[in-house]
Amino acid sequence: MTDKLYRSEVDKKLGGVCGGLGEYFDIDSTIIRLLVILTFFMGGVGIPLYLIAWVIIPANPYQSSAYGNANVVDEMRDSVQDIGNTAQSFAEDIRRIDPRRRKRYIGIGLIILGVIFLMDQWFPYFFDWGKMWPLIFIIIGLAIILRRD
Question: Where in the chain are the domains?
């Protein structure tokens, strides 16, 4: 983890925000990119936040740009390809899991889904998906932190 948050000039697809956050928190920037895309589908809040971060977070003065004046279309194509490669490696990792453990994970997932749907039925005004997204991000963050060695 670095001391100061900068936009990355090396791990850069558009503005370097996700790369800079990945360097700052010492996690893979592709995970952050996937979360930004996910927030886009949750009402589009990810795009304005990304643009604000792009304006506010300074570029890293200690790095030189790996792309120079690359075309934005090429950068977007590279981003989509990186996300596809990450999804493919994730699928390969899932295939390598022991079948007994895989069944356990599927069972745990089904139990969690059952609890979510029951909560939605019993407490329809309290349990709203719009309210649950922050909790989901907290759980994902905790899982990333706890799974690190």
Answer: 1-96
